[in-house]
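Service request form, structural biology core

Requester: graduate student, group of Dr. S.
Request type: structure prediction, single chain
Budget code: on file
Notes: please return the result as structure tokens.

Sequence provided:
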Amino acid sequence: MYRVAEDSASFLPKIPVQPIGYSEAEILLQYLQEDEVDAQWRGGLRNVTYRYGGELRDASDAWNLGSVDPTSGTATMLEVTRVLGQMYKNEFRPQRSSMFCSWGAEEYELTGSVEYVEAAQDFVTRSKSMDSKNLYKIRVYNDQVLQLERAFLNPLGQGRDYTDFKHIIYALAKGNPYAATGCPAVSDVIASGNSTEITNPIAVATYFVHGILSVLKEVHNFFSSY
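Core staff response, request fulfilled:
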């Protein structure tokens, strides 16, 4: 995989990390002073303030299992944020500052996924406002949905042992029969450790996803948008 050499990675943690229960953590937190950690405990990330305390965080994107990961974490974080916000309005003040963070691109193959979803939002919006009595508009919309599924299929297969596994996203990975590893063609190369071949499946997946978005554009606006 592409990565920075360990001896030149100044941003790696300088102290060991051990998860503990809150009963132990509460005692340790009582001895900590100020908000920001000591200089010797700070990492090498720029534009980052290192503070004491635990974390409540969440990622906001996923290839699959979205209702489990990350939507379950997002729902929990939003509810905690809502409750604390209401408590703050009632003059509750925590002993330390609280930060709630939600971000995308939290692992391989998810970079740009939010932008791809945003680019297709108008397709869903149009379906809600469509005249259900206009059979021609319904036919156009249904054809787009049909072509959307077809756009996920690679006629040449995934370049792996089984050419009949043609789906870009849900084709089975070699080491995971439940296809829960994201894009299987990319996952297989990452698992093999062959860093020189990883660019090919990523390029193929990116090409197909870009083509999938073009299927969702309005027919009369297709050429004007390119």
